[in-house]
Amino acid sequence: MVASTRIVSLNVGSQTVGLAEFRPQANGGIVLAGYQLREILAEAGNEPVRNAQITAALHEMMRELQLKPAPVNYSVPAQSVFARFVKLPAVEEEKIERIIAFEAQQNVPFPIEEVVWDYQLVGTGAEEQIQVVLVAIKSDLLEGVNAAIEETGLRTAVVDVATMALYNAFRYSYSELTGCSLLVDLGSRTTNLLFIEPGKIFSRSVPIGGSSISAAIAKEFGEPLGAAEFRKKRNGFVHLGGAYAEPADADVARVSKIVRGTMTRLHAELMRSISHYRSQQQGNAPMRIFLCGGSASMPYMREFFHEKFQLPIEFFNPLRNVAVAEGVPTAEVAREAHLLGELTGLALRRAATCPMELNLRPRAVVRIKSSRYSDVVPGQTGVVTGEFQGGFCVEINGVFHDAFGKSRVEKRTLWFRWSELAGLASEPQLTGDVKQHSVKRRKRRANQRPRTAST
Fold first, then answer.
1. What is the per-residue pLDDT for 99?
2. Averaged pLDDT, 253-263
């Protein structure tokens, strides 16, 4: 845990950027001190314009929140990240790292030297299989976003994936739930699904979101996408079908039916995802559904999901166990709580032990943080410091690994992983009596329940 008077979190979504300030509590909880949300309008693929808008939005939000430069935990959108849940055979501890490195090279659809990647053990499967979540992002994409953020004076501490930040917030807020919960994050470009059970997680992205509705409206009315987006926000709601009366305005009725058609396509994809989760991941059927994300705010969205799934439907509230400071508008927080999941999950990374602790820090950030060590030797995919008593430090694919305090087996595994990627063959001389610090700790952490604000 980091002792600090404030925690800054930033969610860089595909269309919305959110910035929040939290304060830690002595019991491991957090207090929301303020937040701001801004839309960015750059089209997909136009990264220079998008990054410039991120910087401008951050400057504006930091002024509103009276935030000075500080360390920041931020998340990148799920559609920018390759994520894969991999099942591995139960093997000896010293082989896990090597197998995971091999799986990363086999699964990531880009040359491994062109990405920043990380992994976490997330529990055991059938017959004691090891389940691992692998995440990777293109280095150039990440460096561009990171530069846009750090131009404001914020300093990168943690780079998370939006869906995993949501997962941490959900586990913190609803730790008492049993059975399977389905968290549906209705974003602009994608809808992200999180299947959550005690000790189990699975995520999937569906390429249908709010922008799909806007594109369908633009096609129907023969108008530019910007005008269609405005029409959606002004007139959009989910048509309830059946015996419900039509809106008096014919254009409003047309929009509502377009929205329903798009959501019906999404429902079909959700049903396929549920079948995949049950058959391929040995998961249970969802007992309840939580909605979050910008498109979840559309009128009658909750009623549509209840009609289709016949399950309890709630809006995700990541602030159930989070206090709200005086001066923060409570009515606004209540109305927008379902938009604050990522910001809350990111803040928890500084205040509590989280079940998912991935970090995709860019190589440039890792090199800066590792510059306090001497005798840095560059490698093909990272750096390794000179020898120290009892250990060494390496950077592997943008992730900084500290071997101090680890067991001899873990040190040797870490060195071999780096040396294979960097084209080296020798093994460091490991000296000193070190404390056993097993890789199994990450596996145990993934199954721990997070502390609530009352503990």
1. 86
2. 96
- 8 A C-beta contact, residue 437 and residue 405: yes
Query: Pairing relation of β-strands 323-324 and 377-378?
Result: unpaired
The C-alpha angle with vertex 388 and arms to 383 and 391, in degrees rounded to 5, equals 75
The pLDDT assigned to 3 comes to 47
End-to-end CA distance of the chain: give it in Å, rounded. Answer: 15
User: 417-442, pLDDT tens digit by residue?
Assistant: 555 555 443 433 333 222 223 333 34
Tokens at 13, concatenated: 């979504």
**Mean pLDDT of all residues in the chain?**
82
Please give the domain boundaries of the chain with CATH numbers for all domains.
Answer: 7-80+140-174+320-351 (3.30.420.40), 210-309 (3.30.420), 363-438 (no CATH)
What's the confidence (pLDDT) of residue 402? 55
Confidence bin at 159 (pLDDT 50/70/90): very high
> What does the buried/exposed string (b/e) look like for 278-298 if buried means 16 or more CB atoms within 10 Å of the residue's CB?
eeebebeebebbbbbbbbbbb
Residue 394, pLDDT score: 57
More confident residue, 123 or 343: 343
pLDDT digits (tens, 9 = 90+) for 144-155: 999 999 999 999
